[in-house]
Amino acid sequence: MKTKIYVLCEPDGTIRYVGKTKHSLNARLSGHFWAARRSGKNHCRNWIRSILHTGHLPTISLIGEVEGDGSNEERAWIVYGRAEGWRLVNQTDGGEGASGRVVSIKEHQARSMTAKKHLCSKESRLKSNRTRTGQKRSIDARLKMSKARAGKKPWIMGKHHSIKSCLKMSERRKGIVPWNKGLKEKK
């Protein structure tokens, strides 16, 4: 597995973020834009929003490609960049997980309060369970639904892929390991 190490830059070329991806650089840049537009606040997303607000786009550049997950290489580039004086918006030291990210007491308390607000009372949970499990439909309702479905085939029944489509799908799947390969069958 190849991993790409990349940088996000200001429109003037100043490096502001070091990251890694297994996907294409365009896909990763789109992911950053999506997160900046729809997700919460962090230093990187705020920076991207500030660039977008000016009518410009950050640029993405490949700085290396490595075998494996690239965590060590990403960490090394972040350390190097900070030593060189890059004003990085990376929240952590890189790699997997949140190493280097220290949660302040204030932030911890805010998260705790938010979690406590979402707790439901016992009555509320019981009411929710009752609506989710559904209620028995009346005989009239079941007969009406049965008549509406009468004579209709399930949506997939009778449809087939063309030979050309089957060959394309087969070619696309070659070399991909099935998700269940190596899993033991339960008896």
Helix/strand class: alpha+beta
Oligomer: single chain
- Rg, alpha carbons: 26 Å
| Low-confidence region ranges | none
CATH architecture of one domain: 3-Layer(aba) Sandwich
Shape: extended
Which whole number gives the mean pLDDT? 85
Counted by DSSP, the helix tally is 7
Order of helices and strands: EEHHEHHHHH
Helical content stands at 40-55%
Intertermini distance = 34 Å
Strand residue percentage? 5-15%
CATH top level of one domain is Alpha Beta
Account of the protein in words:
With 187 residues, the chain is an alpha+beta fold. It has a domain at 2-84: GIY-YIG endonuclease (3-Layer(aba) Sandwich), CATH 3.40.1440. 46% of the residues lie in helices and 13% in strands. The protein has seven helices and three strands. It has a three-stranded antiparallel sheet, sandwiched between helices. Helix 1 crosses helix 2 (43-53). The longest helix is centred in the first third of the chain and has 14 residues, at 25-38.
